[in-house]
Each structure stands twice: as structure tokens, then as C-alpha cells.
Design goal:
- By secondary structure, the chain is α/β, with parallel strands linked by helices.
- It has a single domain, classed as 2,3-Dihydroxybiphenyl 1,2-Dioxygenase, domain 1, CATH 3.10.180.10.
- Helices cover 17% and strands 36% of the residues.
- The chain contains two helices and eight strands, in the order E-H-E-E-E-E-H-E-E-E.
- Strand 6 and strand 7 form a beta hairpin.
- The longest helix is centred in the first third of the chain and has 11 residues.
- The radius of gyration is 15 Å and the shape is globular.
Length: 126
């Protein structure tokens, strides 16, 4: 049996690393992390306390056709301020949703059409 400790990182292939760095730093507000000197371009970002987002050069075709697509979700403390921030930054919002259990979701696309979900969980769901 494998003893799973936690999710370590999510990796996304991107077509333009500097453009994606700008998006994840300035639109979403993620903080860069040091990255080993690999033989390909990329960037690492902190996702909370222990998880990371890794951007890797190399995407040449569109990611998906479904509006929610393959995605990862970032939990936020305040839905309204997150929504306002994303609108102010001109993020490509593809869906706003209220789940049947009361959670609220915003789905956006990054410059390569990767879908990022921002979710607010009410206290009873935490």
C-alpha cells in the first residue's frame, strides 16, 4: 500500500512562460518560489502553505473545449472580494456558480485556457 501524505503540486504546460508568470502573479496574486535550474523554462508558485503550482514551457495546442475543463481550485476567504478583484484585473470569467451545498464558485481561464476555480466554502462545509 502507498502511504499518501498530501498533494504536492499541480503542473501546467504553457505556451508563453513570461505571459503566464504575469497572469499568475498579477491577476491571481500567487507568490513565486525558487525553482531548480532545469533544462527547460518554467516557474513555481506557492498555493497555500505547502502546495505549489508549476508552470512548464511546452503547450502548443488548446487545452480543452468544455467551459469548466480540467481545472484546479483555490479556496478563498471572501467570495465577493475575489470576484471584484478578478473583474478589476480583466480575468476571463467563464462561469459563476452556486453549488447545491452552498459553496460559491468562479471559473476563469488563464492565457492558455487552463481553467482555475476559486471557491468559497461556508463554515459548515469546512
Amino acid at each position: 500500500m502507498i502511504e499518501i501524505l498530501d498533494l504536492n503540486h499541480v503542473a501546467l504546460a504553457v505556451s508563453d512562460v513570461p505571459r503566464s508568470i504575469d497572469f499568475y502573479e498579477n491577476v491571481i496574486g500567487l507568490k513565486r518560489k525558487p525553482r531548480p535550474a532545469f533544462d527547460f523554462d518554467g516557474a513555481w508558485f506557492a498555493l497555500g502553505e505547502t502546495r505549489e503550482l508549476h508552470l512548464l514551457e511546452g503547450l502548443v495546442t488548446p487545452v480543452h473545449e468544455h467551459p469548466r475543463g480540467d481545472h484546479f481550485a483555490i479556496e478563498v476567504a471572501n467570495f465577493e472580494s475575489c470576484h471584484r478583484h478578478l473583474e478589476e484585473k480583466g480575468a476571463a470569467i467563464v462561469n459563476l456558480n452556486l453549488r447545491p451545498d452552498g459553496a460559491r464558485q468562479i471559473f476563469i481561464e488563464d492565457p492558455d485556457r487552463h481553467v482555475v476555480e476559486f471557491c468559497y466554502l461556508p463554515p459548515e462545509l469546512r
